[in-house]
Amino acid sequence: MKLSRVSVVLVWVVAVLFQSTVYGDPHQPQQVHLSFGDDPTKMIVVWNTPEPTPNASVEYGQLSSASRYANATMTKFVDGGSLHHVQYIYRAIMTGLVPGTKYYYRCGSKYGKSQVFSFSAMRNGTDWSPRILLFGDLGVLNGRSLPRIKNDVTKNHYDAIFHVGDFAYDLQSANGTVGDMFMNLMEPIAANFSYMTCPGNHEYAYNFSNYRNRFSMPGDEYGEKMFYSFNIGPAHIISFSSEYYYFLQFGSIQMFNQYYWLMEDLEEASRPENRRQRPWIITMAHRPMYCSNSDSDDCTRRESLIRTGIPFFHILGLEKLFNSYGVDLMIWAHEHSYERLWPLYDRKVYNGTKSRMTTRRLQSTSSQAQRAVMRTWTHSCRNRQTGQLSVPMNTATPGC
Ligand SMILES: *[C@@H]1O[C@H](CO)[C@@H](O)[C@H](O)[C@H]1NC(C)=O
Ligand SMILES: *[C@@H]1O[C@H](CO)[C@@H](O)[C@H](O)[C@H]1NC(C)=O
Ligand SMILES: *[C@@H]1O[C@H](CO)[C@@H](O)[C@H](O)[C@H]1NC(C)=O
Ligand SMILES: *[C@@H]1O[C@H](CO)[C@@H](O)[C@H](O)[C@H]1NC(C)=O
Ligand SMILES: *[C@@H]1O[C@H](CO)[C@@H](O)[C@H](O)[C@H]1NC(C)=O
Ligand SMILES: *[C@@H]1O[C@H](CO)[C@@H](O)[C@H](O)[C@H]1NC(C)=O
Ligand SMILES: *[C@@H]1O[C@H](CO)[C@@H](O)[C@H](O)[C@H]1NC(C)=O
Ligand SMILES: [Fe+2]
After folding, report:
1. Overall average pLDDT of the 293-317 stretch
2. 371, containing H or E segment
């Protein structure tokens, strides 16, 4: 116990020194990180400053001579803690990139600029195998994987980094300063590689406001939705929020919105001309459907919310939906253990991938599929009127 307290203090001191020496100037960009844009010609860069710096931009180009500029939008972000920690968050989209080409960039304003970082714009086309560095549940304290991740990215070329929820422990801790510290620790990695994320349970504070403000993902640049998808090589990647199912105090409508969006996105990705090009559909979200751990997490239950959906109503379950569209791979985190499962559906193992386990693909347009769900929901409401069931959500739900 004593030992762990000592190491906690040491890490804290080191981190504070690191912050005050490197990031002393409040106009200096910090926490720089990248994510993919809507297509391989775009890249999103996000950074923060403690003090506002108007007219900030990113300058970028091949070789070290910057030849292009993109203006940034600046938003004031106030952490929800009692100190109301303020910082300014900048988002800029680098456009007109030549796919597969190395770029250099630096961001900031006339009041202070970042160092020069670099990245490779995503390769175009589908005939290549993306290399992705995957992890979840990484914090400032006990962030044991961080040195290995740093070492690994300098040796191997990765096309992207996926952080599958739970950041910093926590982004909002110590009035948001732990989040700042974490994003600065990640900067050497996340400023040179696309850092693609999804929210975890640890981001829930103030309705996920630290998560939503600090990250910009393709199609969700201002973190309004917490779900998005993008294509990389032969894969279509869908990132979504498992947390909508667990934090109903923030409302349930977002769960429905996400479900409808998932349906539309899967429908589009599985149109024959798209699936031919990108046969892989891969999902990522924080809390798994299944696990064999012996903690009391939801995945240890027979019917996890994320798998079978809302109890009694049997709606919004994702296993059925994903299976009906032949999702190939689901990536999860949260359990702090490595686990890889046989092909699995409804608790039954389908050994080997030669016999196709996909039962039936929905032969419907998304609006038909949507109606199917609306019908299920209407039915559920009728049940509710009999007074037999209690509903674990608020009343702002469609059809009720
Ligand atoms: C920002 O740019 C605008 C338009 O060029 C200019 O009028 C304004 O003075 C600039 N603000 C600062 C603080 O540099
Ligand atoms: C970027 O901002 C500057 C002012 O700082 C302005 O003069 C310029 O037109 C802007 N560029 C674009 C593309 O909006
Ligand atoms: C990031 O890119 C810059 C510019 O190429 C380089 O100096 C730096 O070493 C890179 N960092 C890592 C961790 O690869
Ligand atoms: C990417 O590839 C597609 C299909 O081959 C092509 O239509 C498109 O122009 C390419 N885009 C770029 C920026 O090279
Ligand atoms: C914010 O700081 C105040 C004063 O130090 C402290 O009491 C409070 O617990 C902090 N809140 C968070 C969420 O860190
Ligand atoms: C929480 O955020 C979601 C968007 O992710 C929004 O739909 C919902 O209304 C918010 N809830 C509250 C209570 O502010
Ligand atoms: C699946 O197949 C492998 C290889 O044939 C075998 O070792 C394993 O025991 C099988 N698992 C199940 C659950 O059938
Ligand atoms: Fe978690």
Report:
1. 95
2. helix 366-385
- Average pLDDT of the segment spanning 215-237: 96
* Cβ atoms of residues 60 and 37 within 8 Å: no
Is the same domain home to 375 and 277?
A: yes
Q: How far is the CA of 184 from the centre of ligand 1 (A)?
A: 28
- Percentage of the chain beyond pLDDT 70 is 82
Site to probe by mutation for ligand 7, drawn from 292, 342, 348 as the one with most ligand atoms within 8 Å of Cβ, is 342
Contact (Cβ atoms closer than 8 angstroms) between residue 249 and residue 201: no
Q: Which pairing describes strands 68-71 and 57-61: parallel, antiparallel, or unpaired?
A: antiparallel
54 Cα nearest atom in ligand 2: 5
CB distance 162 to 194 below 8 Å: no
The pair of structure tokens assigned to 178 is 């732990």
Using CA atoms, how far residue 283 sits from 185, 231, 273, 287, in Å, is 27, 12, 20, 12
One domain for residues 255 and 393: yes
Q: Whose CA is nearest to atom 10 of ligand 2?
A: 71
Question: Tell me, what CATH number does 107's domain have?
Answer: 2.60.40.380
Here the tokens at position 31 are 């926490």
Structural domain span for residue 378: 225-400
Predicted confidence (pLDDT) per residue in 117-161, tens digit = 999 999 999 999 999 999 999 999 888 889 999 999 988 889 999
